[in-house]
Amino acid sequence: MILKDEHGRNDPCWCGSGKKWKKCHYPQPEPQNRADIAKFYFDRYHILLKTPEEIRGIRAACALAADILNATCEKAKAGVTTSELNDYAHGLHVKAHAIPGPLHFGYPPYPKSICTSLNEVICHGIPDDRPLQEGDILNIDVSPILNGYYGDCSRMVFIGNVSPEKAHVSKVSYDCLKRAIAALKPGLPFSIIGNTIEAYATAQGCSVVNQFVAHGVGKEFHEEPQIPHYRNTLDIPMVAGMTFTIEPMINAGVREAVIDPIDQWTARTKDGKPSAQWEHTILMTNEGYEVLTTWE
Ligand code: MF3
Ligand code: CO
Predict the structure, then answer these.
(1) Domains of the chain
(2) pLDDT at 2
């Protein structure tokens, strides 16, 4: 005979989380092969591990994203409007038989094809008719859909000479992205990303936005998991076949964001101080990782 199971899989977990035991501390068998691992990650976290065919598609979408981003950044000069940058980038999507992910996305439907976030705008700035001016810092964010697959990347552009504060926040954001990427390793938890970023950004006198997060990407625009750029305890191990963004939003002043009540998209720093962001899409591999949106 076998000992009766005193504690059922559907009972509350002994740890007091309030979740079912099977969804919490129930001992998990080590998954053996790719299909088992993919099923485990989807069932437990709703994370999609990509097949080699899907990775080919995502790789192509990411290469296109980086190309469009680079070409659009080259056009960003004093006197040019962000609306003109949008139209140029839109044309590059059409030429490549791609769809701009942001266009009509969400609610209220996002009205443009790229995001252009100037100075104190943290993210989701909407292209408009304001000409770029000497001293502006601008984030351009490009996310095409190619053959049904998504790529996502962004970077900063300086318009002429910028203030030391703006140059600093942009460099810190770039270094945060580089450091988070360098820390990636299969088997490590996702929390390594935010913990690396917040430790570095705060040591440099900057703050990390916590109202927006990075995300799984590839088959959908925004997939699980949501990945914080701030200190956190997200203990899901990274494994080969995951595709996700890292996109630290770093502020020169306070971390708080205020969303524009009229357009309901533009997110600005609460204190009006500058903000900067750089973004890549990453693929985890058995050996380590690959940056799919390299622009260098
Ligand atoms: N790259 C941005 C993101 O990851 C794109 C936002 S599109 C928008 O969310 F429509 F939400 F603005
Ligand atoms: Co993104």
Answers:
(1) 46-291 (3.90.230.10)
(2) 46
